[in-house]
Specification:
By secondary structure, the protein is an alpha/beta fold. Helices cover 34% and strands 22% of the residues. The termini are far apart.
Length: 281
């Protein structure tokens, strides 16, 4: 294949791969961008070709990108070079509880450490996240069902550094059909992050903020997360056949239409003391 260069909606250049230009996951991207600033250190575990890494590198002080797939890691480095970025450290390995070697199972854009049939395999290094990163502000984890293992190798970050974690749970939403062996993983992760407030803001995606750092989150970012969490609560009610306001305080919804509520929730929800009980599930 020739060295085809694509340009995404935001003017960035991408080598050979439309994954960088696709507007999917903009909600997650904007959420992470709202939580970071020019002094932030961002960690992208499961960086793939750099959809998040490249964009966050333009905003943050430094980015650690973790990607075990050799082909994806090569394209990731090319994308970093194409956009003249020099504040990214690429760790070509997987993350897990202990240092080891393991096989990754590759199919198109999907790479997992969970054994799969009819996929190419490559042996890679597995390293604890604690051994790669000593300080960070935000960590994004999207590792196709291996998220619990990543956290088991990050006890120092969890306990002492206390970054914000953005985790895609593969035992939730549509992902569970592809990774049935991950059933119950979200509950185990919740125990690992027991000192964090959990805000589910998209299907299968949750933010975890340490309880001691809630007041340090920029107000606009916290408003966004809480509003998304409450909106997700409403949509879940509808999908599961309940009244849209089920589980919400009476004073929040009485006399208000669902559409008005969804539109206005960003403006006032941060002042409502009950928000943690609603979104932290």
């Amino acid at each position: 294949m020739s060295d085809q260069i694509l340009v995404s909606w935001d003017g960035l250049k991408w080598f050979k791969h439309d994954r960088g230009i696709c507007p999917r996951e903009k909600n997650v991207l904007r959420t992470i961008q709202s939580l970071t600033n020019k002094n932030s250190v961002f960690v992208d575990v499961g960086a793939h070709i750099g959809f998040y890494t490249v964009r966050l590198a333009l905003k943050c002080k430094h980015v650690h990108a973790v990607e075990p797939n050799p082909e994806s890691a090569y394209i990731l480095r090319r994308n970093i070079e194409l956009n003249n970025i020099n504040n990214v450290t690429v760790h070509q390995c997987a993350c897990g509880k202990n240092p080891s070697k393991a096989k990754i199972y590759i199919a198109d854009t999907c790479t997992t450490l969970i054994p799969r049939t009819n996929r190419r395999t490559v042996e890679v290094d597995v390293k604890p996240l604690d051994s790669l990163v000593k300080y960070c502000d935000v960590v994004k984890i999207d590792v196709e069902g291996f998220e619990e293992e990543v956290l088991l190798g990050a006890s120092n970050l969890i306990t002492h550094v206390k970054p914000i974690w953005i985790i895609e749970h593969h035992d939730k939403g549509s992902s569970i059909q592809y990774y049935p062996e991950t059933k119950g993983m979200s509950e185990r992760i919740r125990k690992l992050l027991a000192d964090y407030v959990k805000i589910t803001f998209d299907e299968g995606r949750s933010a975890y903020i340490h309880k001691s750092k809630i007041n340090q989150v920029p107000e606009h970012a916290l408003r966004r997360l809480i509003a998304l969490g409450v909106q997700h609560h409403v949509l879940t009610n509808i999908i599961e056949g309940r009244a849209w306001y089920h589980g919400l305080p009476y004073t929040w919804w009485y006399g208000v239409s669902m559409l008005d509520f969804m539109e206005e929730v960003y403006e006032h929800v941060i002042e409502e003391p009950e928000w943690i009980k609603i979104v932290d599930k």
